[in-house]
Write a structure and sequence with these properties.
- The chain is an alpha+beta fold.
- It has one domain.
- The protein is built from 3 helices and 4 strands; from the N terminus they run E-E-H-E-E-H-H.
- It has a 4-stranded mixed beta sheet with strand order 2-1-4-3.
- The chain is globular and about 45 Å long.
């Protein structure tokens, strides 16, 4: 399987962003790799994004976040980008290799597209 090959029809593909039964799963991106974890959301009135902030995680979106980044990985990316001129995709490819060096193409990559809805 090609490293960049992802999506429906690819062996082992499972997209938690499209599965309504996976509301308690979230992708966590850390300097050690990319991981899918189950989350027990608080039933309080606080939204999910704020709950992630309280756990030192930066959500990918403020509405129903399904991915979060540790501040550690954000710091590492900032230093790599400033000192080594590392592109975001290259940095993510490195994290995929750290997560699974044998099958980096099987490491989850978000396929969500932000839609701009003008007022």
């Amino acid at each position: 399987m090609d490293e960049g090959e992802r999506g429906p029809g690819v062996a082992g593909y499972h997209d938690i962003f499209d599965d309504p039964n996976d509301e308690d799963k979230i992708v966590i991106v850390d300097s050690a790799g990319v991981f899918v974890h189950r989350v027990a959301w608080c039933a309080c009135s606080e939204d999910h994004a704020m709950q992630l902030f309280r756990e030192a995680l930066f959500p990918n979106t403020f509405k129903r976040p399904k991915m979060a980044f540790t501040f550690n990985v954000l710091d590492h990316f900032y230093i790599d980008a400033m000192e080594c001129k590392t592109a975001a995709m290259s940095f993510y490819q490195k994290l995929r290799r750290l997560t699974d060096n044998t099958f980096p193409g099987m490491v989850h990559v978000s396929n969500t597209v932000l839609k701009f809805n003008p007022p």
